[in-house]
From TrEMBL:
<keyword id="KW-0312">Gluconeogenesis</keyword>
<feature type="active site">
    <location>
        <position position="287"/>
    </location>
</feature>
<keyword id="KW-0418">Kinase</keyword>
<feature type="binding site">
    <location>
        <position position="405"/>
    </location>
    <ligand>
        <name>GTP</name>
    </ligand>
</feature>
<feature type="binding site">
    <location>
        <position position="310"/>
    </location>
    <ligand>
        <name>Mn(2+)</name>
    </ligand>
</feature>
<feature type="binding site">
    <location>
        <position position="263"/>
    </location>
    <ligand>
        <name>Mn(2+)</name>
    </ligand>
</feature>
<keyword id="KW-0670">Pyruvate</keyword>
<feature type="binding site">
    <location>
        <position position="243"/>
    </location>
    <ligand>
        <name>Mn(2+)</name>
    </ligand>
</feature>
<keyword id="KW-0210">Decarboxylase</keyword>
<feature type="binding site">
    <location>
        <position position="91"/>
    </location>
    <ligand>
        <name>substrate</name>
    </ligand>
</feature>
<dbReference type="GO" id="GO:0046327">
    <property type="term" value="P:glycerol biosynthetic process from pyruvate"/>
</dbReference>
<dbReference type="GO" id="GO:0071333">
    <property type="term" value="P:cellular response to glucose stimulus"/>
</dbReference>
<dbReference type="GO" id="GO:0030145">
    <property type="term" value="F:manganese ion binding"/>
</dbReference>
<dbReference type="GO" id="GO:0005829">
    <property type="term" value="C:cytosol"/>
</dbReference>
<feature type="binding site">
    <location>
        <begin position="286"/>
        <end position="291"/>
    </location>
    <ligand>
        <name>GTP</name>
    </ligand>
</feature>
<keyword id="KW-0479">Metal-binding</keyword>
<dbReference type="InterPro" id="IPR018091">
    <property type="entry name" value="PEP_carboxykin_GTP_CS"/>
</dbReference>
Amino acid sequence: PFLAPATRPWSTRRAAVPTPPGGARHARLMAWVRTIATLTEPDEVVWVDGSATQRQGLLDQMVRSGTLVALDPVLRPGSYLARSHPDDVARVEDRTFICSVDPQDAGPTNNWRDPSVMRAELEGVFAGSMRGRTMYVVPFSMGPLGGPISQIGVQVTDSPYVVVSMTTMTRAGTGVLDLLGTDGRFVPAVHSVGMPLVDADGDRRTDVPWPCHPTKYIAHFPESREIWSFGSGYGGNALLGKKCFALRIASVMARDEGWLAEHMLVLRVTSPEGRPFHVVAAFPSACGKTNLAMLQPTVPGWTVETIGDDIAWLRPGGPGTDGRLRAINPEAGFFGVAPGTGPATNPAAIATLTHDVIFTNVALTDDGDVWWEGLTDEPPAHLTDWRGESWTPGCGRPAAHPNSRFTVAAEQCPTIADSWDSPEGVPVDAILFGGRRATNVPLVLQARDWAHGVFLGATVASEQTAAAEGPVGVLRRDPFAMLPFCGYNMADHWAHWLRLGDTLSGRGVPLPAVFGVNWFRKGADGRYLWPGFGENSRVLVWALRQVEAAATGGSATGGSAALAVESPLGLLPAPGALDLGGLGLTEEDAAALFAIDPAAWVEECGQTEEFFARFGERLPTELAEQLAGLRDRLGAR
Ligand code: GTP
Ligand code: SPV
Ligand code: MN
């Protein structure tokens, strides 16, 4: 039916909304689905039940239509390659909108649009946008079904690629409808690739492997908690449970309800003594979250288990708990960066990707498997590149797109923790903030207290990556790694963090320790100074020894005096406290990893002041005080 010619012009057709499995219990949900179907005019409406049969049917259909290439069933069982349109390969930040009533509520770092103006524009754009296609309805849960931190959404989409991706990345299907009952709350999310197959005259056009539209809209209505996405099939633009819901909309819910929705990985680290710690870490897109989440520690006796690789929802524990901040991974799969992922850098990811994976924009080998830069040291002699063109080594083009990705179920990961889907979440011991910084920022430092930790988060800057459209390598401010993902005024987000700290302290509940990290510092010759990847465990071990020391009555700064020394930026590892042995680092390199150049930092303070000034009166006074304190410690006042 996907490519069959129309028997009647679109205008005489009105898609009937079938009864969902289990019955049409939720009147508001049914009415909304009917409204969207009336607006977008699909041929057919299909409920996604979450079954393996339905998923396989969609995969087979996409192989027939050319959207997917089935990989070799022996080399890569159950796996497929999608090649996107060459202009639909990353998030489109300049087409991402926060449509709050008051522009101040979106803040200076978001693209604000008036909600009524945007609604009118979207109505025009979505009118008839699904003609000739099937509209799928995907009920999904972010977080374990029915969990105290979980939330429900329903996405409609005309993309089968989005449907199968959503069924991997979220808990999707009929169980969610059961949970919604007759009047449960859900976030409505509308998605269309924006390429109807029947035009206004009723003429049908043939489909293309990756339909999309040159003009994209990724629109969020924080007050009514709705998402409307048009024109793209790519991950963060189209899998609306992910960045649109679990960060932009959820951050607004969290502000209003006293919790946090953050761009963070979650991991469980166990010391040789058997003590478990839980760490969350916020790094900007393509700056190492998936890799740290799957880290294979090189420090003997320590183990690391994966809980989440991209998004964390954090909430103070309820009655019956110790009240500490607890984290869940609201997702059910990984949408990870392929390039750079290899047996030496991320063996756990390589083991995760042996079967049942959807790859997007990687290269295809002649024997029907996949390849990308960094998978092996030497590329195969011949490949089909991400655009579908013949590729040989030395041809001057990358074989895989720099933002090519894999979509895979979390439970396939060999390092996944037993507690990864615990509905109550795990207690958070440490929070890391980091970015991609060639200069200035030391390998690791610890915040002096919670407010200083919020300052570290608010002042993250990072060199831009291929995860979003735009120039790669340019240094930009990316507070809390949330610049493209905070659904409200970023300064209010900082105030919310400060307030949450006050609330927990007021209850006598211990706060997580906060650290800043940078795996990406370079020497004058352009080499990374730090080996990174598994060796990042050395940094975790130092940080968690600090946490441990604080818990057993260490110094007031939150750790043991023997492990850390004061610096203008925060606490640095004391000489010898972070083991650098056996890495082959020269003394100069080891010193350069932790070097603090006061002049460069005074300049950085000036940039922070300019950045903070953009928020006017919304900037929390605590952060202005933190900046003043840093300048004092640098001797710059
Ligand atoms: P998103 O999914 O976009 O949010 O990215 P992410 O933060 O999960 O980043 P990911 O772990 O996928 O890493 C992105 C790129 O950085 C990959 O090419 C990695 O190989 C590389 N990378 C990750 N960790 C390190 C590290 O410790 N050192 C160095 N040099 N590169 C790293
Ligand atoms: C990111 O860009 O931070 C990602 C990929 O994790 S996307 O889902 O496209 O946002
Ligand atoms: Mn991300």
